[in-house]
Amino acid sequence: MTHTYSITGMTCNGCASSVQQKLSKVEGVTSVNVNLEKQEAEISMQQHINTPVLAAALAGTKYTLTDLAKANAMPSSIEEQPVTLNTYLPIFLIFGYITAITLLIQFLQGRFIPMQWMSHFMAGFFLVFSFFKLLDVPGFAMSYSGYDIIAKHWKAYGYIYPFIELALGISFLIPAYMLWSNAATLVVMSISIIGVLQSVLNKQKIQCACLGAVFNLPMSTVTIIEDAIMIIMSAGSLWLLLFKN
Length: 245
Fold this sequence. Notes:
This protein is of the alpha+beta class. The protein is built from 8 helices and 6 strands. The protein has helices at residues 13-24, 51-56, 89-108, 114-134, 137-144, 156-171, 178-201, 221-243; strands spanning 2-8, 29-35, 40-45, 64-67, 207-208, 217-218. The chain is elongated and about 75 Å long.
């Protein structure tokens, strides 16, 4: 796919060459054609790359990249899509299903065990969310590198992260690993929420990678709440494990 972007700040052929070099280094970009006269760059890519990821390649320079692809049939960036309650329907449905199933397990056994319910809930959360990420790992990694504080500097983390979630989901189903699972979740989700908070507070209109590249969900307070729930639950479970006696 090919998209056209506006590039401001170019004044000579050297500027155009510099912009072309920097954008060509972005993972997933196959070719870059810079037009100095039109102050534009035509970028071809293996799959959609979020505008902030491309703009980040020019960070620290006098050049600024903005999106010009609003006329395309397929939206080129998250800001082109109207945000409504239905936008977040996939997340609401997932949380609803996981909550209902885990509460049903508690009901069928005749009593509510908070520690067990939280373990089942977190297992379901990580297994489902890792599933969507694993459907398109490169796509997820590309989106994740646009805001995560680790993936920004170490792109391999975006490829590893879906498997971290998968491992956490499995470990929450094994009672012997409860302490390790909750401690790891607290660390992983605390790091994750930093990038989310930065993006939301800076009002960056970018794609949330929580459901991988399958759903084009905007980064928002919903993402903060999602991460915060897992942080609170893992912290609560750790407290019960360490101090219940």
